[in-house]
Amino acid sequence: MENLNWLLAHWYFHVPNFLLAALMYTLLGRVVLQFFVEQDSTNYIWRFFCNITDPFLRLIGYVTPKAVPPPVLWLLGFVWVFWLRVVFVYFYAIFGLLPRLT
Predict the structure, then answer these.
(1) Are 74 and 31 contacting, i.e. CB atoms less than 8 angstroms apart?
(2) Global pTM?
(3) Phi-psi region for residue 20, left (φ > 0), alpha (ψ -120 to 50) or beta?
(4) Coil, strand, or helix at residue 10?
(5) Closest by alpha carbon to 89, among 8, 20, 5?
(6) Over the stretch 69-92, which tens digit does the pLDDT of each residue have?
(7) How far apart are CA 38 and CA 36, in angstroms?
């Protein structure tokens, strides 16, 4: 019960960090899944991965050259989200908002 109270007290850190982690690993999953499924497949798992990651990929598509093939763009998206999480934790650490296990 004490752990649950600690998690709820620091929701402002854990929820965005969890969402960024889910996006990051979904991008990585899409890269792995593309070896088994065609890009225009109607497979429901593939469509799920595409529906989750496509909005973010459109955003990074603006800063990525158009010559980059889609699987490389997905890996670049993974790297972008990784560094976004690093900056997120650094920001919270600078302002003393990082949760502590005490």
Answers:
(1) yes
(2) 0.86
(3) alpha
(4) coil
(5) 20
(6) 999 999 999 999 999 999 999 999
(7) 7
